[in-house]
Specification:
The chain is mostly helical. The chain is built from 21 helices and 14 strands. The two termini are 30 Å apart. This is ABC transporter substrate-binding protein.
Amino acid sequence: MKHKLRKSSSIILSSLLAVAMVGCSSSNNSAATTPKTDASDPAWKEAQTTPFGAYPETVTYSVGQVATSYSALAGTPYEKDTATDNVWTRYFKDKLNIQNTTSFESNDGTDYSQKVSMAIVSGEIPDLMVVPDYATLQQLYENDLIADLTDAYENTASDRIKEIYDSYGGRVLDSAKFDGKLMAIPTTEISHGPGILWLRKDWMDKLGLAEPKSMADVENIITQFVEKDPGGNGAGKTLGLVVDNENVAGVSGGQFSFNNIFSLYGAYPKQWIDDGSGKAVYGSVRPEMKPALTKLSEMYKNNLIDRQFAVRTGDDRKALLTSGKSGSFMDNWWGSWTVADTLKLNPEAEWVSYVAPQSEDGSLTMFTGNPSSSYLVVRKGFEHPELAAKLVSVQYDYQRYQEKDAKALKQFEDYKSMNVGGSPLAINIDYYDAFYRNVDIMKEALETGDTSKLTSNEDLTAYNSYKKFLDSKKNGETPDSNAWAGYTSSITTASLVKSSNIKEVNPLFFGSTSSMTLKWPTLTKMELEMYLKIITGEQTPDAFDKFVDSWNKTGGEIITKEVNEAIANK
């Protein structure tokens, strides 16, 4: 679901960037191969002011890349492909007349973050580079190492790319602006949607239970599962909700978390939320947390939560569900993939998704995730800063929505089928509501067989997969578990979310501060211990008050001040 550079710890570069500035001021990564622009040449002007116009001479650009494993291509027509010669780079060469060279290449995550830091400190910044967090972007801007992309974006990004960014209501582009200037093209993180309750519908039918809406409904269903054992596990052997013991709540799109239950009480743990006056406060220390924790402790005491959740591993949690030991968990719209293996063990099992528990008005409130945690920057001094906007326009607009050449599309599909990336930009840019945006159009296509309204090439590929799933059901065949998971997440659950009354709370801050670097690990550990001890009954809910006091004294109060200063300075 998330194809982007994973957010790492903030990189502290202030003491080293003075060295970097000396190196970068003389850096000339692409001068030897980048042709000089002739401003009077209409071909050059068109290339620099349109999203899809090709350069009249080949423009070479250096880039820091996430490594791709090309070994998967062995024995195929692509087996000789490399980071600079593959399906994506050849496509960019054909469309824009550009060619990448690799400044550095590394694995995603921490390894990539370290390479970015090393490139900055050494003064050898690539012409284009994705930086993995806001702190690094800010340091690059403050030390005048990256190009202003305001005009490049306005003049060269495609209309669809601009529409995509507009779907976030300004939150994404604003995150990359300093002093009114757009200093990077942000990646996007689509909405994870609300938390979803997944239940064994075949068990509900056996017990005559209606679909849940309220918290009382949810508790009743799980009580019936545990006490009446519709799965035939034996008395006392059917477990309650399966829960993650490290992320009890507070992660957008969190698997096995209690976000929905906390939100019923107006609590948003781990999020920097508006206190009502425009000031940011840490949701985990707000008074709304206490009644939510009280409810969870009651549920645990009544066996509605897996009694051993505090010691379960990720594999344990999945096995409890796929083997039929538990019939309930909270996940997200893609939760069907979590339990897809159930169909292999028990083809009669039926997992169904619900937007629950709901408030009295039938709504469910969710907090939104960080809409952009990484940024595409251009080295200051690179002659073609517009190339960043052109690249994202070709990759995330033209190739995805407008390309009709069957041969080109097959090559991309071949790469995808072998789980091979290859693009110099291993990021994602998509609509905020991407997971349910076109679900009604897709359902219509599946009903009529008319695919003319599908908007992207990816939609057409998905259509073929979903049709095979529906055909297998129609013919009385056992569906492939992955086909079931794909259809259930992207059609059934996406439709459910789109038609539900979902309210959103937008956190105010996703970054880091100076005190967080030293104090946050301790505070995070304190918070997790508080959840586990109160929920399992080792401590009463009144222990929450002591936690709040300790949290503030151990650095929370200072960090809260720094967060609000950072918001004000932005």
